[in-house]
Amino acid sequence: MRRSRNSIGSKMTFTIVGVSSLFALLTIMVQLWWNYHSALDNAVADIDRYTRSLLPSMSHALWDVDQPLLKDLVSGVGVLPSVSGLELASRDGVYLNLGQGVPVDPGHRYLLLHYPLSIQEQAIAELTVALDRQQIYLQLGREVMVIVLGNGLKMLLVIYVILTLANRLIVRRVEALANFADGINLSELTKLRLDPKVAESRDEIGLVAQAFSRMYQRMRHDYALVRRQQRALTRHQQELSQTVEERTARLRWQTDANRQLAQISLSFLNVSVDDIASLLAQVVRQIGELLQVERVSVVEFEDDRLHYRAFWSCIPNAQSADEQLTDVARLKRRFTNNSMIIIEDVESISGRWPEEYRELSSLGIRGIAGFAIMDGDALVGVLALAQVSGHLEWNDDKSQLLTQFAATLNALLIRRRREGQMLLLQRQLLRANARLAKQAATDELTGLVNRRPFSARLEQALGTEALLLMMDVDFFKHYNDSYGHPAGDEVLRRLAQALKQALPEDALLARIGGEEFAAVCPGQAPEVCRQLPQRLLDAVRELNIPHGASPHGRVSLSLGVVNLLGVDSVRDAMGRADACLYRAKALGRNRAEWEEH
Ligand SMILES: Nc1nc2c(ncn2[C@@H]2O[C@H](COP(=O)(O)OP(=O)(O)OP(=O)(O)O)[C@@H](O)[C@H]2O)c(=O)[nH]1
């Protein structure tokens, strides 16, 4: 630590030097004062003692008028140090002035000492000794240097000792303490060690250091506690915000899912039976994307067989399981007491349901959720969601949603099934009706149309250049009688076939009675028209069916032909043709007769 002028060392130095200097000055002053007075007193005492010892001799010398002796004696006093002058004045006029004499005004410099000279207690003269203080001052001046030097050295020694002690006992330890305090950094919570010399001493600084150390320990402890609390608070806040985020996401997901489910339910209500399959395909895809699973399928049980009604997978070219290989009875058994089966990890059922485990594993399914589609108490199908790339991520919200969806799906499947059954019934009815209608319009024996459709066609051809041909088998009663009724039936069938082939394609041939045929032949070329009856007769002749009871020896026909141009009613047309036929019969049979105009 850099020591500044404000350091304890500097302050102590300044203080000690200042106080010591002052004290030394005072000491010197007092000593000088004391020395001065001692020197003055000593000088006065010396002068006094010496002078008084000489006074009797001086008195006698003066009395004896022994001038030289007197002068010697007085001069002897003048030899004393600090005596600057002497004056002896007797009553009888003897006067001696030695040295510098006695100043009239002594002032501060001189001290005058007066000694009476007497003989027989009678004063005869007075000796005045002038003491010059200057001498004492000079002597003191010499002593001052010694005193100052002595005191100065003493003072320096004392300062050195005090500063050394202060440095060792205070400054260094305070600096160590300051360094310790400087090193305190709560954010890092470092463990600081105070110098044992500072911390272990039992003086005030040691006590302060120990108090500091304890305070730091408490601060560390408190700070660690606060940090722990802060960390716990932060963790709690993070957990709280995470929980809020998760709940918000779940709520958002639920809202979105419910909205989609409502839309799906609505679309189920409005969909026509024919569109159910495509709607289901679309909906399973929607469910798959909403629940983020890789496969969704809807299967229905029918006659103890399983049918995939919809299958979707986000994996290209993924195939549903083979309907034939699924053990429907086992699948139904699993759903007997469970409306849903959630297997997040297929491995978890390896011991409990080994067959299902094998089957699912062989399909590469690693997690699956199945929801029963119930029709009342009957299990009619299963909605299944599967994961192949990993385990199934599941929660109650998804279960709740899919349970609802399965119920909606059930309603749709029931509707599909019931409407499908109705449609099937309708189609069967229509087919039966068509069959009946066809039967009603068709002659069962020959396969030709009967009278009703023929009449309708005839009506259409009225007033056109069409021909109406009425045909009747000759002597057919005899044939039946001779060959039997079944043989007669066969003849009718063969005749129908031969006549149909002989007629133009657009002609309509009908069996309008027991052994009666009729044909409407739309407008043809005159040549074709003219030859047509003969073509028909020839066709019958070519059949060459033996008929022993007929004069012709074989089965033959008689024809009555009418041109429908100018004919305006079926009844009229049939009547006219009948008349022609009658004429043909009358003229010998096996011939055609035209209406005469
Ligand atoms: N095998 C058979 N015979 C039928 C059928 N429908 C009617 N016949 C018979 O056809 C015969 C018609 O006889 P008739 O009306 O007397 O006329 P025909 O014997 O043909 O004599 P002509 O018409 O005068 O030449 C009856 O004997 C009927 O039984 C049928 O579907 N099958």
TrEMBL record:
Gene3D superfamilies: 3.30.450.40, 3.30.70.270, 6.10.340.10
Enzyme class: transferase
Domain HAMP, first and last residues per copy: 168-224
Annotated ranges, domain GGDEF: 464-597
Entry keyword Magnesium: no
Catalytically driven reaction(s): 2 GTP = 3',3'-c-di-GMP + 2 diphosphate
UniProt key word Transmembrane helix: yes
Source organism: Shewanella sedimentimangrovi
Keywords: Membrane, Transmembrane, Transmembrane helix
Listed name of the protein: diguanylate cyclase
SMART domains noted in UniProt: GAF, GGDEF
InterPro entries in the cross-refs: Diguanylate_Cyclase, GAF, GAF-like_dom_sf, GGDEF_dom, HAMP_dom, Nucleotide_cyclase, Rev_trsase/Diguanyl_cyclase
E.C. code: 2.7.7.65
SUPFAM superfamilies: GAF domain-like (SSF55781), Nucleotide cyclase (SSF55073)
Pfam annotation, one family: GGDEF
TM annotation in the entry: 12-34, 144-163
